[in-house]
Design a protein that fits this description.
Blueprint: H1 2-33, E1 35-39, E2 45-46, E3 49-56, E4 63-68, E5 72-77, E6 82-87, E7 94-103, E8 109-111, E9 114-119, H2 143-149, H3 162-165, H4 171-176, H5 205-216, H6 220-231, E10 238-242, E11 261-265, E12 270-271, H7 280-283, H8 285-300, E13 311-312, E14 317-318, H9 324-337, H10 343-358
Parallel strand pairs: 2-9
Antiparallel strand pairs: 1-3, 3-6, 4-5, 4-7, 7-8, 7-9, 10-11, 11-12, 13-14
Helix pairs in contact: 2-5, 5-8, 6-10, 8-9, 9-10
Length: 366
Amino acid sequence: MRKFSIAIVLLMLSSIALLGTAQLSWAVLQTTQRGKIVAPKEGKTVSGNVQVTVRADRTFIKSAALYRDSGDYIGASTAVPFRFQWNSVSTNNGTHHLFVKLMNRRQVVVGTPAVDVNVSNAAGAGGNVFFSTQAPHAQLPSGAVCANEVPYSSFEPRPQNATANQTVPSTAALNSHNFYSQPLYSGSVPASDFSLVDGNYTGTTDMIIQWAACKWGLDEDVFRAIAANESWWKQSTAGDHRYSQSQCERQYWNGWNGNSCYQSYGLTQVKVYDFNAWPEANTSTSFNVDFIGAYIRACMNGDSSNLDGQVNNATGNTYPNGSTNEVFWGCVGGWYSGQWYDSGAQNYISNVQALLDSKPWLKPGF
């Protein structure tokens, strides 16, 4: 009788173990099957701009990021079905592996559907252009040309920027507060250097950054790093809190609320106390980044008279002399400190370069 009881117990335990294994296998299956790449199909030959579409269970999946081959990031999406635009021209012809990291609300990866596709583009086809820094006085493209150069992307880590990203200032509004005649209160840069600032572009936050980088001949990743350092890509960011009414009012800007004000606004923290850029720097993402692009380019061209004669002690070069790289980074630092390689500028440069190295905008949860 005892042996029979033990046998029954062993049988019951075995059944429970098998059931547990089955449930575990089903859970794993559910995790991997919660999303699927439905376009392009496995083995499909693709060329040019390719739309990658992922269907997923919205109950479990909150965001997705698309990668290529060993992990080259392409873009992210937060709307089901997840859609991504991939310009295959920037990839060598041949077989390539596309995979999507599906993430839950906590940004934990819970699935990685994948397909292999065959890229076949004609010889000489143009691909995505990485907008890099151009030398001082370089011939630069117009905003309209750059609008056609920026590839469409669904990558938007800041959906809260949507209204500002779709806002383009009118020329009448800019003229109403004399922006074009006096863009800087100090007058340290000729007004003509800002004559092309119009914020005439709409798109995702990253597309707007690329557009401004193209228009002003600046490295797009540095632009991304500046925006991360200044606002973490949030156009609603307000900074430089002040408590003196005299620091809260200008002819066309009054931020005084009876107790204090903020002087800086937007993606790149345009300081409206020093620049005649209110309210467009606050209401329009494209105007905000357009403005800093013009400011850095004017500095690179040697037009910032307040920097004349200042020395970069590391090289001995006085503004605006030096290599393109030295002048470019000096002007990036000058955006913060208003000086040429002083301690404040160098600290700012270090912060931006650290973000340039880590590229947080490519990481889940940014």
